[in-house]
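yo

u said u wanted the structure for the complex thing, so here. seqs first:
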Amino acid sequence: MTAGTRHSTRRALPVRLADALAAGMPGTRARIPAMAAAIVVILAATLVAGAAPARASEPALERPQAKALVVGSKRFTESYILGEIVRRTAESAGEAAVRHEPGLGNTGIVQAALRSGAIDVYVEYTGTLAREILRLPDPDDAAALAEALRREGLAVSRPLGFNNTYALAMPAAQAEQLKIARISDLAAHPKLRLGLTQEFLGRADGWPGLRTRYGLPFRTPRGMEHGLKFGAIAAGQLDVIDVYSTDAAIERHALRVLEDDRGWFPRYDAVLLHRVGLEQRLPRTYAALRVLEGRIDDPTMRSLNARAEVGGESFAAVAAGFVARLPLPAAGTPEAAAGGTQPPSRAVADAGQASGRRSLAGTLFDADFLRLTGEHLVLVFASLLASVVVGIPLGIWCAGSPRARRWVLAAVSLVQTIPSLALLAFLIALYARIGMLPALTALFLYGLLPIVRNTCAGLESIPPALRDAAVALGLSRSARLLRIELPLALGAILAGVQTSAVINVGTATIAAFIGAGGYGERIATGLALNDATVLLAGALPAAALALAVQGLFHALEQRLLPPPLRQRSGA
Amino acid sequence: MIEVRGLSRSFGGKVALAPLTARFGRGRVSVLLGPSGCGKSTLLRLLIGLVEPDAGSVEIDGIPLGPGTVMALRHRTGYVIQDGGLFPHLTARDNITLLARHLRWDELRIRRRLAAVTELARIDPRLLAQYPSTLSGGERQRIGIARALLPDPPLLLCDEPLSALDPITRDDLQRELKDLFGALGKTVLWVTHDLHEAAALGDDILLMRAGELVQRGSLSDLLDRPADPFVTRFVRAQHAVPAERSR
Ligand SMILES: Nc1ncnc2c1ncn2[C@@H]1O[C@H](COP(=O)(O)OP(=O)(O)O)[C@@H](O)[C@H]1O
Ligand SMILES: [Mg+2]
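structre next:
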């Protein structure tokens, strides 16, 4: 899940969809037009309602202005560090206000952010660009890559130096003993246990092609999450895993990287990716960034990663140390060059702080605890409010009309099936911004189904005799709704709102992937750093908040429901 | 007075009420009698606008029932159903005064009227704060009747109001309501499938079968001058005792 998202997207349809949407943005190639159209229809229907309440609590995440540069990064250690390096390098030119939006989910999301102008530059890998984003026939053809990018209004720098490709690795001692140095040596050891990321297993350029190229005897290797498989190999549960060639864990776990002796893996050279025109808009900044070309080789990147993941240094500190040694105009004091106006991005600073090996309690109640809690509460309750305001009328509409029931319920259910990262990527493209607005909209959309369904079901479960009694009494339509039907359905409606709220608490952790903050920041950082303490420091308060929300709704039920309708409180 | 002309209704090809023309006099209790499914409830539901007729017309005290008049007519009509039809989320008091509050009566008027109907329906005032689920069947039914009486409607439609009660409670209420309706001079349409109940309530009985009015008259008319063999069968099946007594 951490670095696994970096080369991204080949497997899961939903994630591919996100990419298709992102790639189709400038107006060309919608790869899955039918699905995309379906989603557009649903979103369009709810967008107006969703955007309004969302905007109310939108924090300052403006689009870049003329003299501003926003650097993006993906959600894993290397990308965080490179984002900080790019930020500091750009600042050294003293030309633009530079900001870093760290940890922006997967490739689909950074792509959407870049193309919409929410960010200006980030570090991408040539292999990802060629295969996942542009789908070029020959991923190692640099000229074709540049040409394809130009057609989409994008450009890349020359490679930064390191090639972070896939590799197979195994414990160095075991490799020594079995005399395995190259991938082709594996063919003689069919008993070895392989653990590969699901992504690697599924990609055409991953396991299927590799197995054919080398004639490997292993049947179906186990699928593992990226961060977890290191623990598994350290514990002796696995013998061979896939790694990225700059993975800090290679040194940490004393692994041997097996030589790709039949040249199967493509190149994943790190490059700066930006929109065409950056050079004209910020010439000095652009010149400073080009200093990075060829400066970071494999061992350098691996050691930078290790300083953050093993040494527990903050991303900002690791990046500062590296940038200080670059031959930049104001080398050594990048902050001073930028006028000292831009503090390091908050998530990165926090992540660095948290990643020092500290106690769980200390990490939990770190200085950022209140901010994260505040953000999480805003995410959960602002979106919930919107879901209630829109969902209850939709539920009423459904209960009154079988047609509406069919279509509305189908639409809100369909929204539920869109994976969160795909939905976020779509919303970023739509709003041309990252942060609270798309996060709140996504949570609002996910929150609709339980509320609409329960409102509708609650109203439909009212006995016909009671409805008739209300009509015969001479109550108007609105009086029947307000005095009889909604109060009778209130238990079900509250249960729906509660379900939405509890789900929201969990789902809101994804908001961190698009810079909207909340406890998800710690979870994302913990995953990226493979640091269980930080991860727990995010997951525990989220769980506690979920329990608190349950309690809140229980109390609300006791408050709002008349005694005869209260039985259902356990459900 | 209720004037019904050619009123009919079918549900999916099945006749619930064949064209009916009838008149129900002011201040009288009329009983709709017949086996289950013969269209009694449908007639009441047509009169209160819960069901739209296929054909025919209804006029109540000179006012034709239609989209423009149905609300006002409902406020002039009390509708009582089995088990009271009480709203479970409201206390007995709130059930009774719901319409008055909807019509924005002032507090004093509501309180006075509540006291009056509570007394008429012989409700222990201590029950008013309770929710329907904590009341007995008879108590619930009294609350339902008090609710129907609240706007002092000239017309009462009662659809088997006593069917869910035990025989003793039922007998008491039957007697009591007969006296009450008589004293208040209400026009009453009372639906039942029970010959005993019909006989106890009045001498204007309409015996129905499969949506058709078979015979209208007093109990002795039904016993002595049956319009149809069905009348005799219905009476015999239900009523061994009066049949013997009549000999
Ligand atoms: N809403 C409805 N939909 C379909 N059929 C109905 C409906 N209401 C009544 N009916 C049918 O009309 C007939 C008369 O019903 P009803 O008036 O309730 O009879 P009763 O009250 O005499 O027992 C029955 O056959 C019943 O099934
Ligand atoms: Mg009936």
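Residues B 40-41, 159 surround magnesium ion (ligand 2) (CB under 6 Å). Confidence is low (pLDDT under 50) at residues 242-247 of chain B.
cya
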